[in-house]
Design goal:
The chain is an alpha/beta fold. The protein has one domain: Rossmann fold (3-Layer(aba) Sandwich), CATH 3.40.50. 30% of the residues lie in helices and 22% in strands. The structure holds adenosine-5'-triphosphate.
Amino acid sequence: MEIENFSYKLKTGRLLFQNLNANFQDHQVNIIFGPNGTGKTTLLDFIATVNQRDPTSFHQFPSFSRIAYQPQSVSFIYEATVFDTLKMVMGMSGFRGKFKLTDLPAELQPLAATKYGELSGGQRRLVMIDAVSRLDRDLYLFDEPESGLDPKMANLVMERIHELNQRGKKVIMTSHQFQNVGRNDYLLFLKAGKMQFSGSPTEFLKQAGTQNLVEAYIKQDQDF
Ligand SMILES: Nc1ncnc2c1ncn2[C@@H]1O[C@H](COP(=O)(O)OP(=O)(O)OP(=O)(O)O)[C@@H](O)[C@H]1O
């Protein structure tokens, strides 16, 4: 999956993407980093075809029906329980068997009978990630999936995302967090309308001359 020479201007006149080029890896989790407001979500919107993709710039991305997208602010029915919510998603995904409590991940089983509207923000995010991961698609897009989660839950979510990729699914996500970046992940640093870096965490560290990803990020942010 590749983006080639893509430019996009906001209604305000600000050029958000300027001849942006990006290569995404099929067999690695692609993680887009970058400062707030730099366009990470907007780029996912284009990939997901929420914003119309320019076919001359977007190459080899699956079609809309083969993409699952977890935006930052999407909700389920507040009155439905966690169990019924996930059962409904399984139904949408074509599952026709009997959906059981044990089909929920361990961390969601105690919440099975709780209404979605009564969950905390982080718990809602867990349900959302679980739901999106259950859809049978080729490409999964996650917008800041770990935000608002405690470190243990964030770790679980990232495990889930890595599992998807290991099952052969393509994954592109955005993040502001480094603690769950895996050695095999593919980092893309978006700033000033372009991907200023693409490569492995090892290369990212090497380029910044540090052993710490947060320090490397700050250095990149200062340099561009
Ligand atoms: N509907 C809109 N109308 C006008 N400007 C918008 C709209 N949506 C987003 N923007 C602007 O586009 C820019 C990029 O926003 P976007 O949400 O893609 O950034 P981001 O990198 O995902 O930020 P964050 O890390 O804070 O989530 C921001 O300056 C934002 O104000």
